[in-house]
Design the sequence.
């Protein structure tokens, strides 16, 4: 079938989600779809099916970018809401929104993220909450918090099978990015099976990921398992506290890393359990040499790491008395 609407990014056939592939040649199995650009610059929908597609009774294509979009309004609560199949984000929060509460929502099958916070300018959004909610089968992140967010609480959410499309690199079940993401608490969440099964690309598929963030963030009492990358990953972020988490069956369990000469210092990793991860259970290292003193004053104490490919890995400055430590 030839379609002429803007790229929908989310597609459901008889209620079953099909997952976008950037190049139609990658539509090789499972519930996958993509575009083939034909001679007159229109796009032909290409999908994989093991049965005769003439039997499909409905094809739904996303047309609205957001299920809910909120810009600069304070003290709002969104509760008991279901958002399904938005083209970009299920819920989008923009530009200095303070004290917003997202409670008992379900965001699924959205093209990019289930929920996303971001600011177009340097306007801080304070003390938002994402609690008691479910984020599943979104193309990129389940929960994405970036760009001037201070004091947010991410609690008691179920986040799974996100990071499933190949057009959005570096996504996670729960993802934080930007130096101005500070003083966040991430607790009592279950984040699993992100990036699995449909070959997400570009480093996507961690359970919880702080990426180039600010100070004062806490990750505690979470369970992260069966993710295609890290269970818990604190990258180029100082003063992160990681304690009383369980991380199992991922590629890496719990990791603190520096990169590109940037620091990951004064982090604390206490009382966690990391087991059955295929590569590393607990790791502290720089992805490149990047100069000295980029991984100093980190404390790794009283953790259990067992049954992993390597239970403890520390190098490129992560080791005690190392050439760069």
Sequence:
């Amino acid at each position: 079938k030839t379609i002429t609407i803007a790229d929908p990014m989310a597609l459901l056939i008889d209620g079953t989600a099909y997952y976008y592939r950037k190049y139609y040649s990658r539509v090789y199995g499972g519930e996958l779809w993509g575009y083939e650009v034909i001679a007159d610059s229109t796009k032909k929908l290409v999908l994989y099916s093991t049965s005769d597609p003439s039997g499909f009774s409905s094809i739904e294509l996303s047309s609205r970018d957001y299920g809910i979009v909120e810009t600069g309004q304070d003290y709002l609560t969104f509760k008991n809401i279901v958002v399904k199949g938005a083209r970009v984000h299920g819920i989008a929060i923009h530009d200095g929104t303070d004290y917003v509460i997202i409670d008992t929502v379900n965001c699924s099958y959205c093209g990019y993220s289930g929920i996303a916070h971001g600011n177009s300018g340097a306007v801080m959004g304070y003390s938002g909450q994402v609690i008691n909610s479910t984020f599943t089968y979104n193309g990129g992140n389940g929960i994405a918090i970036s760009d001037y967010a201070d004091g947010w609480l991410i609690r008691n959410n179920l986040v799974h099978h996100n990071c499933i499309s190949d057009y959005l690199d570096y996504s996670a079940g729960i993802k934080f990015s930007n130096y101005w993401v500070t003083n966040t608490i991430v607790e009592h969440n279950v984040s699993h099976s992100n990036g699995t099964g449909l070959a997400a690309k570009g480093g996507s598929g961690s359970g919880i990921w702080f990426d180039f963030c600010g100070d004062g963030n806490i990750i505690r009492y979470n369970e992260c398992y069966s993710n295609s990358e890290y269970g818990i990953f604190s990258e180029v972020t100082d003063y992160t506290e990681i304690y009383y988490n369980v991380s199992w069956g991922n590629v890496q369990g719990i990791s603190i890393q520096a990169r590109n000469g940037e620091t990951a210092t004064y982090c604390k990793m206490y009382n966690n359990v990391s087991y059955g991860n295929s590569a590393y259970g607990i790791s502290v290292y720089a992805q490149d040499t990047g100069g000295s003193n980029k991984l100093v004053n980190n404390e790794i104490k009283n953790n259990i790491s067992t049954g992993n490919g390597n239970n403890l890995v520390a190098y490129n400055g992560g080791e005690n008395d190392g050439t760069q430590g």
